[in-house]
Amino acid sequence: MTTSSGRSDLLGGPPPTKLTLDPAAAKALGTGEDPETVAGRFPDSSLAWATLAERSFDAGNPVASYAYARTGYHRGLDQLRRAGWRGHGPIPWSHEPNRGFLRALAALGRAASAIGETEEATRCRDFLADSDPEVADILGVKDI
Question: Stretch 9-33: mean pLDDT, rounded?
């Protein structure tokens, strides 16, 4: 078995989990549709919830960001489980459909840190690192 970096996985860990793309939600967000409207039409879209969480955080509202991110995170966990994920193993950023979940997870960690939920922020940071060691740097949340 090989890891997402191409190295052999001598411990035989689970293969990377790859979600399927939700083209309608991604297209709506890509054309500039309001993420609140997109989340209302496509409530299963982690990408829509992550976008709302990021927007709220950037607007100075970490509590709303936390709520949106938690929703996106849980929607993503449901999708991961349906895709065969069993609670551990890589969730690579390089697979574009995984990005909504990973962004929601990063947003949850950032918002948790901002509101003093230190343990949750640490769990999110560790989960991101376990999912894809490079994602925290990519999303700029290495210090959550």
Answer: 88
Tell me how crowded residue 130 is: count the other CB atoms within 10 A of its CB: 12
CA distances from 21 to 2, 25, 29, 64, 122 (A): 24, 9, 13, 26, 28
Q: Which residues pair with 2 in a beta bridge?
A: 8
pTM here is 0.90
Secondary structure of residue 112 in the 3-state scheme: helix
Closest CA to 56 of 120, 7, 104, 2: 104
Closest CA to 127 of 95, 96, 93, 88: 88
Task: Encode pLDDT of 35-56 as tens digits.
Answer: 999 999 999 999 999 999 999 9
- Token pair for residue 22? 């939700």
Which value, in Å, is the radius of gyration of the alpha carbons in the chain? 15
* CB-count burial class (<10 Å; 0-12, 13-18, 19+) for 77: middle
89 by Cβ neighbours in 10 Å (0-12 / 13-18 / 19+) ranks as: middle
Q: How far apart are CA 97 and CA 47, in angstroms?
A: 9
